Every structure is written in C-alpha cells, then in structure tokens.
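Most newcomers find our protein records easier to grasp once they have seen one. Read left to right, the backbone structure tokens trace the chain's path through space. Once this layout is familiar, the rest of the handout is easier to follow. The record below serves as our worked example for the rest of this section:


***
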Amino acid sequence: MIRAATISLTKCYVGSPYKLTFSDGTTRSADIVVGADGAWSRVRSVLSNAEPSYTGITMVEFHISDIDTRYPDLGSFIGQGTLSALDNNKASYPYTHHSMLTDVFYQAILAQRNSGGRIRVYITLRVPADWSKTCGIPFSDASVARPQILSLFNDWDPKLKQLIEVCDDVFIPRALYRLPVGLTWEHKHGITVSFLPEFP
C-alpha cells in the first residue's frame, strides 16, 4: 500500500499502464487504478473536472474517552447508538466579520457511540467556508477553545452542553464539501473511483 498523496496520474499512450506520481517523489505504474481518495480525489480528475463545493456546513469533531466509567450518566443519556439534537433552523442571523461566534443560524450536536467506551461528537454549524480560520477560536488550544465553543450553545440543555464540557482536549474543525448532484462521467478503462465521506 502506498500512503503518500497522489500528485498526478497520466497515461503515455493507449494501452500503456497508468503512471502515478506521489508527493514523496516516488512513481508507480498500474494497469488498474482504484481511487478511494474522497471528494478531492486526484484519481477522479482523470474522469471528470468537477470540483467539490462547500455545503454551507462546518462540523467540529471531538471525542469522549471511557465515557461509561468516567461519566456513566452521560453514557446512558447517549445510549448504544447515535444521539442527534437539532435546533430546527430556528434562527437566521446575518454574517458579519466581527462577530462570527454569534452569527450562526444552524446548530446541531451529534454524538455517536464507538467501540471501547468512546464517544465521537460533532457540533454542526451553518457558517461560511472559512469560519474555522476567521471565527477566532484557537482549536489547537483546548483550554481556550472549549469555553468559546460552549458559548455557541448557551441556551441548550445542560446535558448536551456537558458533551463539550467533559470531552477530550482535541477539537477538529471540518468544513463539509460535496460534488455536484447527478455527476456522471464516461467510462475510462482501468479507472475505478469509490466515493467515501471526505473533508478537505
């Protein structure tokens, strides 16, 4: 398995193998190429020039480790599957450059039970694509980021806010992108693309 990112994919002539060039400078030849590299696929670019577009939604991912031992009540609250809490698009504030933290008009908290007593949590916000860079939240500094993220959910149920209060010290912002609905392309021998969920 080659783990370096694909930089380019070329075919010298009909019937020849594809030449793959990777970010670490290595090259490989292959008769069949399977692209499972998400919405930003370099492999798909051989089949289509379609580009992903921002959905208008950004998530912030975080986790709670060993929840059933450390926070059994919270673990029971989430249950054995997925918990979804949505605000039903109830507010619509205009965006401004100086107050991105309050100018949010869609919010959700999603929690999913994983194996080993681990919970994966996403907060979901309808914000501009560059929000994670312009909102002023230092996501790499959990001690500062946590209270600022909590401030987005001031009027939410305390049990839901507890997911943010007790989570591990890693916050990962993820802007969601998608390809055009109904995208198709002509078959090209030796190329297969598998679409998987992907963040930039």
Remarks:
- Helices lie at 67-70, 72-78, 131-134, 142-150, 158-165.
- Confidence is low (pLDDT under 50) at residues 90-105.
- The first strand starts at residue 6 and ends at 11.
